[in-house]
Design goal:
Blueprint: H1 4-20, H2 23-28, E1 30-37, E2 45-46, H3 48-57, E3 65-68, E4 73-74, E5 79-90, E6 93-105, E7 111-117, E8 123-127
Parallel strand pairs: 1-7
Antiparallel strand pairs: 1-2, 3-5, 4-5, 5-6, 6-7, 6-8
């Protein structure tokens, strides 16, 4: 079983990889059969190929920057949550999203599921 410290380290690395725009690094954190729901309430991306498309079509084209915005939370049973801010280009405008990602990890330390909690109240748009 993963320790809370290992989960915290993985989530901190995730934010660093998002900030760097390192899609391959992000994908290496996921289990092959993982799921991704971003934001919660939208269709779930199932499997590494679908997750790859999600990141390449979004993060890969958006000049994203990510900043940790609080303590990373972790449990003793494979779950963690990370609050962060993402700035990116979206539909020809620069925006900022305040998000909390909740992730479940497998026994090998890879992400089994990722759910991103954010909505319109957490989105700020501005002209480029």
């Amino acid at each position: 079983m993963l320790t809370p410290q290992q989960i915290q380290a993985s989530l901190a690395l995730y934010v660093q990889l998002v900030d760097a725009g390192d899609v391959d690094g992000i994908l290496a954190l996921y289990a092959p059969d993982a799921t991704l729901e971003d934001p919660v309430g939208t269709p779930v991306h199932q499997g590494i190929e679908a997750i790859d498309r999600f990141y390449r079509e979004g993060l890969g084209r958006s000049r994203a920057r990510a900043t940790l915005e609080g303590a990373i939370r972790a449990t003793h049973n494979g779950y963690g949550a990370v609050p962060f801010r993402v700035e990116l280009d979206w539909d020809g405008r620069r925006c900022a999203i305040e998000v909390i990602d909740v992730m479940e990890f497998d026994a090998d330390g890879r992400i089994r599921s990722m759910r991103a909690f954010w909505g319109e109240p957490n989105l700020t748009m501005r002209d480029l």
